[in-house]
């Protein structure tokens, strides 16, 4: 996108000069503190815009680009959790390599010129396996998580200290000249404390004291913790936080999680949060005195391997964030928020000067006015009405405010931004198959449904799954024998007995004498499941093999660490001659994990340890199948994914690296309807994918590939068609601009502020393709009242015939272009009688769509 030059007034120049001087000082000795208004850095109050990027949810090769895009998007700070179970996979054995290289990540953020908000936790929630706790922690004698418990506190203190010491040794706190300006202890503990009462309170006080005692030299925060002890700042998390105030008048109003969308769960639709409402929520927080906002997530990324929690959290953690799972700009969200940040920053000196004066402008309208120290003011004009435009008058000027929107006036006069007027370009993204001669050529290896034998152990009764596997694998086999007497009536009638299995979750495949007989699974809201189905038993001994599967351990909820998984019973057979037979208390054999896992079939060396079948022997719709193939990396550096639409459920590896769990057979149920930005948002409001796979595409980081001979291994539990799997590129297909004639422009304000122009400037349509791409053609342009959304525009009742001319001339063949939106550019005003408030999309609207060309 073209960058606008920002002319500076004398006033602005001096502010920038001071900030520059301060940042020079910063890198030597810096102090971070706070007062009632804001976080202060070297004594200066700051309005800080932050965004969450969790380092293990992308590859280190992606980090510099994500950080750069965050910076271009107007961020000052990157926020991340620290993921204990990734860093200490077994007690005392630490791992800080690859995508767990926390020091490298923090240093890259510094190099990118941004600050860091380090949320050490070490409980993190985050839809992450076990909320970030290592599973071994649960097996420390006498431990009780997140309460006033000696063994837990000792472990928490040990790990927190370890992280703080690493950061100190690398001089990464701002007090040492590093980028970390804030740290967080615990995460949303308030509601848990409320349930626990006094042990909860004691734990809060201990955690606060412990953290402060680590002397990082920068402030600590606790989110959703109304009683956070001094000097810790309590902060807000939510879709909106304008109503929030900190627990002491001398603490600033901070929003640590402004949810940009929501996570996807297997079985659920894909949530989206409109850019206009996101901007509205942030503008209303700032207008009401907020001074720190963090987008959760700014880049959501991917739950690689078995890191997803839940249970049932999908492998994609896209979150509808401004940077999508693959690191591409999500437009118009990224651009609309970038414009918002510029508008807020223009007001920063006024915002940090003191409190706002609130002036009612109507029943649903109000102004928040902030005075500059040097004179003058900045204002936010809000219209909370959910249907109507509002004409308001403020300081003898008239303003037209769209419903559910806030206008920002850095000089109390000119509107430079309105949250409901998206000036940023939008884009449609496509997943295009990478040409591969004849597709993947698969080999297959069948995992036998387990029966007692190698690595099994036998006991009476049913065992809880996590206690048994300690989460080294998703899979646990429960196996038993059932003797059927030849006199059983069903052998003649063919009315098979019903096997009923009650499981605490999360998924189950039932094999009878080696044949898949049925499958059952739960959901995030209800992980428990019941399998109840007629099963083909024969006279004599029958092998019942139940494959119980965990799909991520819980990460939130009261004492989530105690929740069970696996077949706890009863397991019964009904419809035998003597009625019901309870199998729960007979002898069961157990096997942890799959045979293929024990052989490391996903790895290059392990995969050559067995005979693989090829050609017509590659079975389709076959349960418990391992598939492997090799392929060469495609040309170019577009992000890549595997289209798993033809598969059922299982896991994927590339060159031994674990992509994650696939489960496209779990179709999304929920409500996917009309989506309007207007009105209070919640995670169920603007979903897509109902009736389709919750997740069809699985991100393959480019850096995991070598030029040739990449090993792709898929384990399929349920049955799918591997020939339907393809490698796809994620690319910008078309970009669109949707410009309103009334679009506020930052340029107008800046030109006026510098005294260079008297008459308002016309808005411009700015369009740009991805790096290395050019605009091939104009798919659609209409200066008038066009309808539809990017990718499916159509002409409205009014349309200027020369709408395409300017675009064809100025844009085709270019990487980017800007076109002024004014009637004379398109052969005159096609509908002079239209008015902003009578037309939902604006009077003279212009939309263009550009398709990619290479
Ligand atoms: C918050 C929590 C985050 C994340 C979020 C939902 O309550 O602090 O870690 O789980 O909910 O995505």
From TrEMBL:
The keyword Cytoplasm is annotated on this UniProt entry: no
GO biological process, one term: carbohydrate metabolic process
A Pfam short name: SUEL_Lectin
UniProt catalytic activity: Hydrolysis of terminal non-reducing beta-D-galactose residues in beta-D-galactosides
Cleavable signal peptide: 1-30
UniProt keywords, alphabetically: Glycosidase, Hydrolase, Signal
Gene3D superfamilies per the UniProt record, alphabetical: 2.60.120.740, Galactose-binding domain-like, Glycosidases
PROSITE patterns named in the record: GLYCOSYL_HYDROL_F35 (PS01182), SUEL_LECTIN (PS50228)
Record has Transcription as a keyword: no
Its EC number(s): 3.2.1.23
SUEL-type lectin domain residues: 759-832
One GO molecular-function entry: carbohydrate binding
Leading EC class: hydrolase
Similarity comment: Belongs to the glycosyl hydrolase 35 family.
PANTHER family: BETA-GALACTOSIDASE RELATED
Protein name: Beta-galactosidase
Lineage: Eukaryota, Viridiplantae, Streptophyta, Embryophyta, Tracheophyta
């Amino acid at each position: 996108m073209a960058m606008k030059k920002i002319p500076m007034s004398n006033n602005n120049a001096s502010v920038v000069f001071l900030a520059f001087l301060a940042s020079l000082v910063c890198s030597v000795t810096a102090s971070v503190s706070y007062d009632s208004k804001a976080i202060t850095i070297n004594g200066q109050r700051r309005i800080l815009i932050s965004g969450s990027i969790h380092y293990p949810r992308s590859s280190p090769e992606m980090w510099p680009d994500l950080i750069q895009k965050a910076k271009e998007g107007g961020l000052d700070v990157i926020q991340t959790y620290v993921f204990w179970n990734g860093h200490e996979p077994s007690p005392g054995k630490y791992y800080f390599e690859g995508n767990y290289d926390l020091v490298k990540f923090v240093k890259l953020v510094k190099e990118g010129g941004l600050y860091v908000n380090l949320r050490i936790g070490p409980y993190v929630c985050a839809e992450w396996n076990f909320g970030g706790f290592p599973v071994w922690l649960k097996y420390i004698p006498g431990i009780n998580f997140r309460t006033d418990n000696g063994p837990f506190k000792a472990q928490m203190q040990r790990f927190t200290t370890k992280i703080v010491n690493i950061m100190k040794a690398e001089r990464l706190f701002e007090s040492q000249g590093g980028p970390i300006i804030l740290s967080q202890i615990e995460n949303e503990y308030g509601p848990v404390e409320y349930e626990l009462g006094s042990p909860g309170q004691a734990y809060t006080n201990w955690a606060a004291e412990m953290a402060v005692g680590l002397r990082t030299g920068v402030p600590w925060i606790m989110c959703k913790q109304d009683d956070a002890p001094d000097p810790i700042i309590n902060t807000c998390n939510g879709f909106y936080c304008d109503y929030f105030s900190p627990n002491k008048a001398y603490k600033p109003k901070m929003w640590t999680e402004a949810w940009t969308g929501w996570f996807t769960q297997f079985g659920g639709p894909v949530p989206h949060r409109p850019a206009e409402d996101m901007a509205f929520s942030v503008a209303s927080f700032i207008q009401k005195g907020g001074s720190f906002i963090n987008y959760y997530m700014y880049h959501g990324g991917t739950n690689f391997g078995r890191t997803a929690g839940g249970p049932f959290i999908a492998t994609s953690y896209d979150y509808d964030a401004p940077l999508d799972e693959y690191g591409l700009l999500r437009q118009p969200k990224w651009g609309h928020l970038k414009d918002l940040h510029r508008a807020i920053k223009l007001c920063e000196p006024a915002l940090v000067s003191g409190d706002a004066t609130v002036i009612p402008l109507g029943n649903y309208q109000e102004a928040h006015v902030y005075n500059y120290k040097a004179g003058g003011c900045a204002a936010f004009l809000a219209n909370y009405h959910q249907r109507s435009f509002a004409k308001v008058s403020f300081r003898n000027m008239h303003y037209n405010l769209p419903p559910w929107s806030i206008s920002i006036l850095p000089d109390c006069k000119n509107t430079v931004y309105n949250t409901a007027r998206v000036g940023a370009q939008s884009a449609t993204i496509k997943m295009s198959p990478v040409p591969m001669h004849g597709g993947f050529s698969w080999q297959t290896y069948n995992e036998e449904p387990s029966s007692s034998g190698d690595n099994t152990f036998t006991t009476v009764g049913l065992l809880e799954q996590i206690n048994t596997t300690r989460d080294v694998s998703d899979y646990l086999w429960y196996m038993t024998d059932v003797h059927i007497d030849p006199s059983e009536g069903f052998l003649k009638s063919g009315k098979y007995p019903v096997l009923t299995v009650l499981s605490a979750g999360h998924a189950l495949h039932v094999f009878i004498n080696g044949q898949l007989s049925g499958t059952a699974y739960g959901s995030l809201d209800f992980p428990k499941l019941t399998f109840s189905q007629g099963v083909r038993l024969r006279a004599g001994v029958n092998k019942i093999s139940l494959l119980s599967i965990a799909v991520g351990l819980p990460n939130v909820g009261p004492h989530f660490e105690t929740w069970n998984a696996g077949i706890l019973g009863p397991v019964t057979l009904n419809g035998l001659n003597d009625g019901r037979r309870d199998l729960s208390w007979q002898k069961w054999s157990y096997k942890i994990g799959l045979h293929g896992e024990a052989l490391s079939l996903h790895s290059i060396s392990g995969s050559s340890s067995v005979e693989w079948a090829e050609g017509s022997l590659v079975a389709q719709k076959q349960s418990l199948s391992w598939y492997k193939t090799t392929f060469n990396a495609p040309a170019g550096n577009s992000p890549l994914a595997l289209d798993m639409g033809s598969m059922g459920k299982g896991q994927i590896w590339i060159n031994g690296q674990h992509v994650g769990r696939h489960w496209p057979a779990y179709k999304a149920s929920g409500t996917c309807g009309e989506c309007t930005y207007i009105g209070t948002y919640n995670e169920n409001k603007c979903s897509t994918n109902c009736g389709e796979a919750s997740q069809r595409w699985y991100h393959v980081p480019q850096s995991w590939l070598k030029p040739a001979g990449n090993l792709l291994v898929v384990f399929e539990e349920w049955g799918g068609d591997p020939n339907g799997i393809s490698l796809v590129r994620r690319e910008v297909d078309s970009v669109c601009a949707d410009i309103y004639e009334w679009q506020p422009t930052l340029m107008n304000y800046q030109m006026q502020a510098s005294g260079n122009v008297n008459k308002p400037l016309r808005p411009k349509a700015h369009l740009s393709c991805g790096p290395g791409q050019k605009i091939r053609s104009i798919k659609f342009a209409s200066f008038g009242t066009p309808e539809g959304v990017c990718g499916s525009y159509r002409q409205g009742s009014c349309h200027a015939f020369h709408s395409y001319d300017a675009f064809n001339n100025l844009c085709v063949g270019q990487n980017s272009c800007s076109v002024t939106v004014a009637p004379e550019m398109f052969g005159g005003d096609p509908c002079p009688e239209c008015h902003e408030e009578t037309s939902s999309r604006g009077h003279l609207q212009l939309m263009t769509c550009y398709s990619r060309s290479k």
